Amino acid sequence: MATAGGGGEEATIQRILRITDIADEPLRFIAPIGGYEEMPLVSLEKAVEPLVSILPAVQSHAYVAKQMCDSP
Prior knowledge:
The chain has helices spanning 8-20, 44-48, 58-68. It is mainly α. The protein has a domain at 42-72.
């Protein structure tokens, strides 16, 4: 079964599993990451630069996210 996002049947199954695995999420409180409020506010493109070496497509994902956003 082809999907609009591409990837075929396996990708569709993975998306469905990700959406439906909410029951497996932990119920305990997890504290937020500390120190982030002291970091400078930068664009999404700049923020993802350090991730490129481990997530090569992160820049294109950031671009798409901004295109889909109502107020970038």
